[in-house]
Amino acid sequence: MTQVPPYEPPKVWKWESKNGGEFASINRPVSGATHEAELPRGKHPLQLYSLATPNGVKVTVMLEELLAAGHRGAEYDAYVVNISEGDQFGSGFVAINPNSKIPALVDYSPPVPTRVFESGAILLYLAEKFGAFIPEDPPGRAECLSWLFWQMGSAPYLGGGFGHFYAYAPYKMEYPIDRFTMEVKRQLDVLDRRLAENRYVAGDTYTIADMAVWPWYGVLTTGKVYDAAEFLATQEYVNVVRWYGEVAARDAVVRGRKVNRISGPLEDQLHERHDASDFVFRTQDRIAAAKSRC
Ligand SMILES: N[C@@H](CCC(=O)N[C@@H](CS)C(=O)NCC(=O)O)C(=O)O
After folding, report:
1. I need a labelling partner for 217 at 20 to 30 A (CA). Which of 13, 110, 146, 272 fits?
2. Interval between CA 32 and ligand 1 midpoint (Å)
C-alpha cells in the first residue's frame, strides 16, 4: 500500500487553511458571506447564477430544453459565479443559496421572488412550473423522482469521494481511491443495467432524471470528468455509453453545455447568456475576433 504521512487525529480538529488540498484557498469550515457583492440582474423572470460544472450544466440544459420545446417563459439570464475566485461567498449569492454552491436560481415571476438552490430542486421546480420533462402519471413520476434523487445521493461519492482523491488530493492514497472507485463502478453498473432495459433513465421518455445523471455519469465515459474513463474502464458500461451519445446529440444539450463555461475551446464558452442569439454572437471566439478587429 502507498506510504502516506502518519496522522494521529487530535482530540479536537482545528482548521489549518493548508489542509484543503487543491481547493485550500476556498474551502472553509464555516458558512456565510465573506464579502459584500450584489448579484447582477437581467431582463427575464428567470435569473441563473452558475458555472458549467456537471451540477451547473444540469440546469442550463433544462432551460434550453424548455425553450426548444416552446416554453417561452423559460427565457433566462445566466451569470457566471467563479467558484475558484470565491464568488459563491459574496453576500448576494449567499442570500439566494446559504450553502454557497452553484447553481442557484431566482424566479421573479411570482409576486414574491422565489429562490431555488440545489440542482435537483431547481430541475424539479422548473419541471413543475412548466409541466415538462417529468411524467404526469404517478408511477412514472415516482420512477423519475427516484432516479433524480439517486443522482443527488450518488454524485457526492463520485465528486467529493472518487474525484477528490483521484484528481485533486495533494498525494495519491490507495485506500480512499480503492474505496470510492469500488463505489463509483457499482453506481455505473446500476445505471448500465437500468439503461440496458430502458432507452432513458426514467423509462421511455427523456426527463429531468437524464438531465441530472448525464453530466456526471454520462460525461464520465468520455474522460471529461476527472480524466478517469480509462481508469474506471467506462467503455465496459456499453448502455451508459449508448445513452451518453444519444443525449449528447440533442441541440439543447449542445447549447446548455456552453452556458457559463469559462474554460476549454473558445467556441464552447458562452460566459453570460441573455438571448438565444448569444450562441451565435457572444461565444468567446466571436468576442475575441471582434476585439482583434478593433
Ligand atoms: N448538491 C449541490 C452541489 C453543488 C456543488 O457542489 N457545486 C459546486 C460546483 S459543482 C460548488 O459550487 N462548489 C463551490 C464550493 O464548494 O465552494 C447541487 O447539486 O446543487
Report:
1. 272
2. 15
